[in-house]
Design brief:
Blueprint (H helix, E strand, L loop, with lengths): L3 E4 L5 H13 L8 E5 L10 H12 L7 E2 L11 H11 L4 E10 L6 E6 L18 E9 L4 H6 L3 H25 L2 H8 L3
Parallel strand pairs: 2-3, 2-4, 4-6
Antiparallel strand pairs: 1-5, 5-6
Keywords: Hydrolase, Protease
Protein name: Spore protease YyaC
GO molecular function: peptidase activity
């Protein structure tokens, strides 16, 4: 399945993202615990997309719908990503991971949210060699890549990142809630897969 990409400012963006997520999730995570992994750091404006999504999801998932890793309080970043992945695999049997991260792209793509099947490669935009992660991935293109990436990430507009984070978190929350309501047995299955 190809990657879906849409401008987060479009009025129909949340519903379009939700439909694509439902398509990617439907029946694909059966018998597997769902885990959301938000990658990034609060020390860089552009790279804070993941932790912002994670923190927002914590408030939206008050019933502990599924585990969330990577928040503003406890970010998952280059230094602790491998350790976090090992911990997830120890705690959950064959987890289905939704990975969320910021990325850089072309000028015409800034502000786009991308959803796709398969893992993402965190740190690729800043030449870091980190493990691939995710059964499906959501990325937000926060700024222009290709030159002085660290400087560009540090000088990304926070308002853009926060609006993208809110769109991703709200849409992901509604999608996961909807799937579990449509198949209530999934909640028991989720809980029974925890070690």
């Amino acid at each position: 399945m190809s990657t879906f990409k849409i401008d987060h400012t479009l009025p129909h963006a949340p519903s379009a993202i939700r439909l694509h997520l439902i398509d990617l999730l439907a029946n694909k995570y059966r018998d597997r615990p769902l885990v959301i992994l938000c990658i990034g750091t609060d020390r860089s404006t552009g790279d804070s997309l993941g932790p912002l999504v994670g923190s927002r999801l914590q408030t939206l998932f008050r019933d502990e719908l599924c585990p969330i890793y990577g928040t503003l309080e406890n970010p998952v970043h280059a230094v602790n990503l491998a350790e976090t992945l090992s911990g997830i695999k120890r705690l959950y049997q064959n987890p289905f991971i939704i990975a969320i991260d910021a990325c850089l792209g072309q000028l015409s793509s800034v502000g786009m949210i991308s959803v796709g099947q398969g893992p993402l490669k965190p740190g690729a935009g800043v030449n870091k060699n980190l493990p691939e992660v995710g059964d499906i991935h959501i990325t937000g293109i926060v700024n222009v890549g290709g030159f002085m990436e660290y400087f560009v990430l540090q000088n990304t507009r926070l308002s853009v990142v926060m609006k993208m984070a809110e769109c991703i978190a709200q849409t992901l929350s509604e999608t996961v809630h909807g799937l579990l309501e449509a198949a209530p047995y999934n909640q028991a299955r989720l809980e029974s897969n925890y070690f």
